[in-house]
Specification:
Layout lengths: L9 E5 L4 H12 L3 E6 L2 H7 L1 H4 L5 E4 L6 H15 L4 E4 L15 H29 L2 E8 L10 H21 L4 E8 L1
Parallel strand pairs: 1-2, 1-4, 2-3, 4-5, 5-6
Helix pairs in contact: 4-5, 5-6
């Protein structure tokens, strides 16, 4: 038996084809969760989760670009239509690009890091909260890096983006507490 039991719970894993997303998805599957898995790459999603692709208990949503609001809202609508609710969201979407000092970094590189990390966390949160509010409960988990706590040379954009994810998560926790929705942030190396 798994150390945690998520039987009967609908769990959304964003970025399910990433290294962390794959592990998180498999752990929730082992714990009995009904999964909704997203990725920008539909072929990769089906390649990594062939056992779930044809299982009507689960939903694979490929081709979802969570950098934009419309695909995120469509994702939540599909989850609501299929399962009627959403209990847990684990947002593993993010990325790292570093090694360049601020005075040599391009504006595009800065924007890319904030978009991929902070903007996606905002969009995912904004999209899932109404469905969770209808249920009167839910859990939102965003993943950030330890760089969110302390900047260092060559990682300014990444550190700023992950710090924004932490602050967003704290604000969500304060705003959603009275709605029975818990928002936390998990820091990884």
């Amino acid at each position: 038996m798994a150390p945690f039991d998520f039987t009967g719970k609908v769990v959304l894993i964003t970025g399910a084809t990433g290294a962390l997303g794959r592990v998180v998805a498999r752990q929730f599957h082992t714990a009995g969760a009904t999964l909704a898995l997203t990725s920008r790459s539909e072929p990769r999603l089906h390649q990594l989760f062939p056992d779930l692709a044809l299982d009507p208990q689960h939903l694979l949503l490929g081709g979802v670009d969570l950098r934009e609001m419309a695909p995120a809202e469509a994702m939540v609508q599909q989850i609501a239509q299929r399962f009627g609710r959403l209990d847990v969201v684990v947002n593993t979407v993010g990325g790292y690009r570093g090694g360049v000092p601020v005075h040599q970094m391009t504006v595009d590189d800065w924007d890319d890091m904030l978009t991929l990390n902070a903007r996606v966390a905002f969009i995912v949160s904004r999209a899932v909260v109404p469905l969770m509010q209808q249920a009167g409960e839910g859990k939102i988990v965003h993943v950030a890096g330890r760089a969110a706590l302390l900047g260092s040379a060559g990682v300014a954009a990444y550190a700023a983006a992950k710090s924004a994810v932490v602050r967003l998560t704290e604000s969500l926790a304060a705003e959603l507490r009275e709605h029975g929705i818990n928002s936390t942030c998990h820091l990884v190396q």
